[in-house]
Design goal:
With about 325 residues, this protein is mainly beta. The protein has four helices and 22 strands. Strands 12-13-20-16-15-17 form a six-stranded mixed beta sheet. Strands 3, 4, 6, 7 and 8 form a five-stranded antiparallel beta sheet that branches. It is elongated and about 80 Å long.
């Protein structure tokens, strides 16, 4: 019996965070005998992979021989922003139930995409469900070691400069490793209404009036929702001055929020001509990324008296893939 044709020139396109289209060329001989395609999909080895993540399920897929290109979809074996290898063989089902198969094609590599705004909106809706009531606040603050602020004064013309966001949070977040910004906090202690004295990041704190960063000329975007194997949940928001490079990056990539009416961070004016009033969500920890450089002269730097809680740092923190509160069904 003539051998089955081996797929050649495999092409991968229309890649999303949890699907792709695949096609290939085949010799016409014995093509009519083909009943199925076997697809071998494997995650590329990564020495930095999350050791807590569940084992990947087997990924040899059996598909009926449909017309090409064929869509491969499924969150149970595809994760966003992940490199994969794929190979294909053709198969013909025999009368006794076994398969005659071709040789495997050559492997090709591809990388799945980031979360789309559709997936981020699903995350946003989950975050809204646990955000809790809103508390008033007046300042944004950034905790760092003393040498961070010394460097800003001595080497950066008194400026805090945006840096590329680390890989903390959801693996599919489109801002990780791409968006440049400066991290700020705004959460307050319930009993005092002031920023907490403890910090995971350093004993020195830059503090700035909220209206300097957040006002009607600022756009607000939802960036991520995650936890780190603890009861605490984090929401990443992006504050981007209108028309800035950060604003242009976020448009079309992240869900935009109404600055006067959302579940996480609001800026409102109680009466015409009155001062702006600011509120933050009580039940999530907000990480606010401001996308422009900032002059230290716009605020104050002071040493804080609390403890340095290193265990609370989110630097490159991996998201808990098993948490039902903050995961959506398109990989982690």
């Amino acid at each position: 019996m003539e051998e089955l044709p081996v797929p050649q020139n495999i092409k991968i396109n229309n890649i999303t965070c949890d699907s792709f289209k695949i096609s290939w060329d085949m010799d016409c001989r014995s093509k009519d005998r083909i009943t199925n395609y076997f697809i071998d999909l494997n995650k590329k080895e990564n020495k930095n992979s999350n050791k807590f993540k569940h084992k990947d399920v087997p990924t040899k897929l059996v598909a009926k021989a449909v017309s090409l290109p064929m869509t491969v979809r499924g969150h149970w074996f595809l994760s966003p922003r992940t490199e994969y290898t794929v190979a294909v063989q053709t198969a013909a089902k025999q009368s006794e139930g076994d398969y005659a198969v071709s040789e495997w094609s050559e492997k090709v590599e591809f990388c799945t995409a980031d979360y789309s705004t559709v997936h981020l909106t699903q995350l946003l809706q989950k975050a809204e469900g646990i955000a809790g009531r809103m508390l008033r606040f007046t300042v944004f603050y950034r905790n760092q070691q003393k040498d961070y602020f010394d460097q800003a004064r001595e080497l950066q013309d008194n400026q805090m400069l945006p840096a590329v966001k680390d890989n903390s949070g959801s693996h599919g977040s489109p801002i990780s490793g791409k968006l440049e910004g400066i991290y700020f906090s705004c959460n307050t202690e319930f009993n005092t209404g002031k920023p907490p004295q403890d910090s995971p990041y350093g004993r020195y704190r830059f503090q700035i009036q909220a209206e300097a960063l957040f006002n009607p000329k600022t756009n607000l975007y939802f960036g991520d929702f995650y936890c780190m194997y603890t009861a605490y949940h984090y929401v990443i928001l992006v504050l981007a001055p209108e028309g800035s490079p950060g604003d242009l990056f976020c448009k079309g990539r992240l869900p935009a929020l109404d600055i006067t009416n959302n579940h996480f961070l609001t800026c409102t004016q109680e009466e015409e001509g009155a001062r702006l009033v600011f509120h933050h969500a009580q039940d999530v920890i907000l990480e606010v990324i401001y996308t422009d450089p900032l002059d230290l002269a716009l605020g104050i730097v002071e040493e804080i008296q609390g403890h340095q809680l290193g265990s609370m740092s989110t630097l490159n923190a991996k998201k808990d893939p098993s948490c039902k509160t903050c995961n959506i069904s398109v990989g982690r």
